[in-house]
Each structure stands twice: as C-alpha cells, then as structure tokens.
Amino acid sequence: MASRRSNDESRDLRLRVVELESRVRWLERRLKKVAAAAKLKEPKQKSSNRPRCPGCFAEVPRGKRYKNCVYCGFSFEAVKPLKPRRVRRSG
Ligand SMILES: [Zn+2]
Questions:
Q1: Are 55 and 69 in contact (CB under 8 A)?
Q2: pTM assigned to the model
Q3: Please, which residues have CB less than 5 A from ligand 1, an ion?
Q4: CA dist., res. 30 & res. 34, Å (int)
C-alpha cells in the first residue's frame, strides 16, 4: 500500500515538473521576445548631450529653467561654472 501511494506521489511530481518545464520554456520564449523588443527601442545615446543634475545624475528636464533639481532639489547655482574670464596674469 505504502509503495503504491509513493508511486502516485512521484507521478504527481513528474507531472508537476513537466508542467513547470513547459512554463519555463514559455517564459524563456517570451523573455527573448521582450529582450529583442527592448533592444530595438533602445535609443542610441541620444540623451548624452542633455544636462544632468550633479546631485542625483538625473537628466534635467528641458524647457523650463529650474534653479533646483526637480528630483533631489540640488541647487544648480552651487556648481554653476564660472563665466570664462580673462585670467589676469600677475606680474
Ligand atoms: Zn538631482
């Protein structure tokens, strides 16, 4: 009796494994599709010329000029590059 019961259990387990394997294969196929789609959508370093916040490195939204980063509140004026001036040479 006991052996019969364990046989049933092992059959159940095998069925489960088969089901899970088919699910995994389906997920793998789906993942490949998604990955391929993501590669197609990937911009080709178009955003590299956009200014970034020195505080959180998020891209600063264009259009409006913010004094502070909309994401972390970093004050851009704190790191504003000095206007190019003629360096006086002492001497
Ligand atoms: Zn920021």
A1: yes
A2: 0.38
A3: 53, 55-56, 69, 71-72, 74
A4: 6
